[in-house]
Amino acid sequence: MPVKIRLQRHGKKGKPFFWVVAADVRVKRDGKFLEKLGIYNPTTNPATVELDVDKTVTWLRDGAQPTDTARRILSYKGAMLKKHLLAGVDKGALTEEQAHEKMEAWLKEKEDKVFAKGQEVSQSASDAKQKALDAEKEKNAKREADAKALEEEAAAAVKAEETAKAEEAAKAEEPAAEESAEEEKEA
To answer: Model confidence over 50-75: pLDDT tens digits?
Structure first.
């Protein structure tokens, strides 16, 4: 019975969540499987991958073939490297201790990369948030300046209107004053 290590889709529409499983090749994608090896969630940043490396290596050494996507996930978690190192131990090229040390060094390096990626993502998110906050502050300052300018224009318009009315009233009084002065001269 040929066995594949492949992904089995779960989750909602638009929110995929996968199980990494060992399954017979003749079974449907989401059908019966032989063993669940781990999970893969591509919706998080960085993607969440949990894998039982020892079970996976056992299946790989027994002849299970991973699909292309599953192979990338297995490589990401170090299952392919561990299989390679164990093959070297079987051939006598390495000792168990050397293989274990190489695996530990690789895992440490990989963990540092993932941690750095997580820090980068959180930093970029905080930078974007700060940039949006600065842009909002700038917009608010511009709005306040525009409102102040409108208030000043309105006050200037009211003042101009008042002075125009005062001048009209003064002009209206001048002819009346001239007429009364002429009446006094005649009398």
So the answer is: 999 999 999 999 999 999 999 999 99
In this prediction the pTM is 0.63
> Is 16 a member of any domain?
yes
**And the tokens for 126?**
């905080």
What is the spatial distance between Cα 106 and Cα 93, in angstroms, rounded to a whole number? 18
Structure tokens at 12: 């909602």
Which residue has 């209206």 as its token pair?
Answer: 172
Query: Could you give the CA distance from residue 179 to residue 11 in angstroms, rounded to a whole number?
Result: 97
Name the residue with tokens 């959180």. 122
SS3 73: helix
Tokens of 114: 């993932």
Token pair, residue 94, equals 């390495």
Tell me the pairing of strands 65-66 and 15-24: unpaired
Does residue 15 belong to any structural domain of this protein?
A: yes
Q: Alpha-carbon distance 175 to 98, whole Å?
A: 116
User: Based on C-alpha coordinates, what's the Rg of the chain?
Assistant: 41
53: enclosing H helix or E strand: helix 53-61
Domain count, the chain: 2
182 — pLDDT class (breaks 50, 70, 90): low
Domain range enclosing 35: 1-66
